[in-house]
């Protein structure tokens, strides 16, 4: 009996570590969720794996600060028969953005920056930025910005910057030509190069998904007095016990690093070009992308989300004040064009915010905030329901795939209290 108790205790300890270094668990029913209905998530993942639509997936549901459901199905690496596990490490890509945004807001609370500060205060090269106004005949002219690009513009993606690969304007073409996100440079060099390219829109007038958060990463370095990876580690990851999150996967953890896949015809998938993962495995890499460079586990990211849902603190460690988190999770797009965002959503300081649930096409709550990553990872935080959902796959690009949305539907249908 004593041996059984010791083994059970060991298994429980391992489970808690896998869930994020100590996030508590509780029966689904005690948290107002139906265990039987949550099992639909498992069956759906199993069906998707069996049909070879996905190699594997991990889903986690947290309510009232406790893990009600977490399951991993399929493979982290299908070709090597490496199973998906609770401690699998994923490329979270743009789920890096909320972490960078939190870093910025920590500096805001410390008085080291203001949201209305011009970006040029921290990156002087942007003082000479101009806007390229394009005509319908393919011509264009440069004009001065009506106002300076601000830190808030970067946080809410109204900076006038772009990504380069989502559209084909003359500005986008320049981004692609110079390779604005080349990985052999650091953030200082990237922002210097970026500042020489005209803005696509007048600052503050239009929401466009962009390299804004990478520019924020450079501002964190300047205002915070250390490299972005060091700031994250010292100020966010260590305090939150996010032990598997970072810009680089060390040798000791590579067996847990999921294979990246790419879609092919017929709804199937194939291993992606290994070059896409090279930066995550290079200990000498110097480009720390606050917009899309992090790897993490579901358990680590759950701790980050729970900190936000708790109003900026977790396990006695406070990163942000409650009102700051509320402010981040408010819609900051009033008076701007936001046609690119899906229905019912605005954008806060680092993530999308639901303004009108009836227009989203899926059960949700007003005030819920969320974002996802290029390889299909996704999270949402629902303050009204005290609910967090995290879904992890590794298929890039995931355009047209709705696995994260399906997971959300299956989570909300399991709410019974």
List the helices and strands and how they pair.
Blueprint lengths: L1 H17 L16 H16 L5 E8 L2 E12 L4 E2 L6 E4 L3 H13 L21 E4 L5 E4 L7 H6 L13 H9 L8 H9 L16 H13 L3 H13 L20 E3 L5 E3 L22 E3 L1 H12 L3 E2 L2 E2 L3 H7 L16 E3 L4 E3 L14 E4 L5 E5 L4 E6 L10 H10 L5
Antiparallel strand pairs: 1-2, 1-16, 2-3, 4-9, 5-6, 7-8, 10-11, 12-13, 13-14, 14-15, 15-16
Query: What form results from the Cα inertia axes?
Result: globular
In the CATH hierarchy, what is the class of the largest domain? Alpha Beta
Taking all residues together, what is the mean pLDDT? 92
The secondary-structure element order is: HHEEEEHEEHHHHHEEEHEEHEEEEEH
């Amino acid at each position: 009996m004593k041996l059984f108790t010791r083994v059970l205790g060991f298994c429980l300890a391992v489970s808690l570590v896998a869930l994020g270094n100590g996030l508590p668990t509780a029966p689904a029913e005690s948290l107002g969720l139906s265990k039987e209905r949550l099992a639909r998530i498992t069956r759906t993942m199993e069906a998707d794996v069996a049909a070879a639509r996905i190699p594997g997936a991990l889903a986690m549901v947290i309510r009232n600060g406790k893990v009600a459901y977490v399951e991993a199905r399929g493979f982290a690496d299908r070709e090597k028969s490496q199973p998906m596990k609770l401690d699998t490490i994923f490329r979270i890509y743009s789920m890096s953005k909320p972490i960078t945004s939190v870093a910025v807001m920590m500096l805001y609370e410390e008085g080291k920056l203001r949201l209305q500060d011009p970006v040029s205060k921290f990156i002087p090269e942007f003082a000479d930025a101009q806007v390229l106004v394009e005509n319908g005949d393919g011509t264009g002219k440069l004009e001065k910005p009506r106002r300076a690009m601000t830190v808030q513009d970067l946080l809410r993606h109204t900076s006038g910057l772009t990504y380069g690969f989502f559209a084909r304007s003359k500005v986008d073409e320049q981004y692609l030509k110079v390779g604005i996100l080349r990985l052999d440079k650091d953030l200082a060099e990237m922002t210097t190069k970026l500042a020489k390219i005209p803005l696509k829109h007048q600052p503050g007038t239009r929401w466009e998904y962009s390299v804004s958060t990478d520019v924020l990463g450079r501002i964190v370095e300047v205002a915070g007095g250390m490299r972005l990876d060091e700031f994250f580690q010292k100020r966010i990851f260590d305090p939150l016990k996010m032990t598997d999150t970072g810009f680089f996967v060390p040798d000791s953890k590579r067996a847990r690093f999921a294979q990246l896949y790419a879609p092919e015809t017929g709804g199937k998938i194939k291993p992606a070009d290994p070059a896409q993962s090279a930066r995550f495995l290079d200990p000498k890499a110097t480009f720390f992308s606050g917009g899309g460079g992090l790897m993490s586990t579901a358990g680590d990211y759950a701790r980050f989300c729970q900190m936000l849902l708790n109003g900026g603190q977790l396990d006695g460690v406070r990163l942000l004040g409650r009102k700051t988190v509320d402010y981040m999770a408010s819609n900051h797009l009033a008076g701007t064009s936001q046609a690119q965002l899906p229905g019912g959503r605005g954008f806060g300081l680092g993530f999308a915010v639901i303004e009108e649930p009836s227009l989203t096409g899926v059960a949700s709550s007003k005030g819920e905030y969320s974002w996802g990553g290029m390889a299909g990872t996704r999270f949402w935080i629902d303050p009204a329901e005290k609910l967090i959902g995290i879904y992890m796959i590794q298929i890039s690009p995931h355009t047209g795939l709705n696995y994260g949305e399906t997971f959300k539907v299956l989570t909300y249908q399991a709410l019974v209290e």
